[in-house]
Amino acid sequence: MEPEEYRQASLKIWEVMAPGWERRREELDQAVAPIHEWLLRELAPRPGDTVLELACGTGELGFKAARIVGHDGRVILTDFSPDMLDVAQRESVRLGLENVTSRVMDAEDLDLDDDSVDGVLCQSGYMLMADVERALAETRRVLRPGGRLALSVWGAPERNPWASIVGRMLIEQGHMPPPEPGRPGVFSMADEERTRGLLDDAGFGDVRTDEVETLFRFADVADYVGWALDMAGPLAVVIGGLPQDERAALDAELARAFEPFERDAGIELPGVALVAVATSA
């Protein structure tokens, strides 16, 4: 798939996902809270700063940054999906965050001036972009000298069964093709060396990486599949399009695969994010 074709297909998927993300925003926020904590700590925004969030989704990370920068600061929420950004905008109004603005914007082509923001946040975004090199170059362009970028992507598939198990099943059953090396995808930046190289090539310095563990909790397999249909982007489209018998077979196979993760309260699927912070020279 060519980059522009991928961009258009991805946009359509995330527009469809917006209502589900709104319904599940609290569940997702709880699961990724350790990632948010790391990103905000390492970005270290100060009162009065301007912080840009890329691929903000429903905006929870940006809302937390807004409380830190205060009334004299500013948070700019951006996403290429108007419907997803509408969700974030509604929530920022509900929360009374007057220092938050929302703008539909593609991270690969930022409609912002050079050296115009103090910090950039991006959780689980760069890995899905058609041209991550271009997006990082744009990030570097809009950051003021000495400004920081804090990002997260998902680590190795075997350490993220919340996503990799169902993805592997759908590939093995012929419902979707295997990921192409170097193409966008949930694990496309899982390799620490590659992520460091991308930041170095974009002109960032003082690159530092770490890992953050997280946990996704579900009552049972049906709860997980419902969550995946609401949240899982391309996987949701594939699962939602399965005939009834194949969907039942997938549910049964998931039940077997999730047995090692069963707990008294339900199913607990671990995750590991690769996180990085870097400085604009």
Short recap of the structure:
With 281 residues, the protein is α/β, with parallel strands linked by helices. The chain has helices spanning 3-23, 25-43, 60-69, 82-94, 132-142, 161-172, 192-201, 221-231, 234-240, 244-257; strands at residues 50-53, 74-79, 100-104, 117-123, 143-154, 204-218, 262-263, 266-280. It has one domain: Rossmann fold (3-Layer(aba) Sandwich).
- Percent range of helical residues: 40-55%
What count of helical segments does DSSP give? 10
> What's the end-to-end separation, in Å?
35 Å
Q: How many structural units, i.e. domains?
A: 1
CATH superfamily: Vaccinia Virus protein VP39
The value of Rg in angstroms is: 18 Å
Uncertain stretches: none
CATH architecture: 3-Layer(aba) Sandwich
According to DSSP, the number of beta strands is: 8
How much strand content do the residues show?
15-25%
Structural class: alpha/beta
The main sheet comes to: 8 strands, mixed
CATH topology: Rossmann fold
**CATH class designation:** Alpha Beta
Mean pLDDT across the residues is 96
Shape: globular
Note the topology.
Layout: H1 3-23, H2 25-43, E1 50-53, H3 60-69, E2 74-79, H4 82-94, E3 100-104, E4 117-123, H5 132-142, E5 143-154, H6 161-172, H7 192-201, E6 204-218, H8 221-231, H9 234-240, H10 244-257, E7 262-263, E8 266-280
Parallel strand pairs: 1-2, 1-4, 2-3, 4-5
Antiparallel strand pairs: 5-8, 6-8, 7-8
Helix pairs in contact: 1-4, 1-8, 2-3, 6-10, 8-9
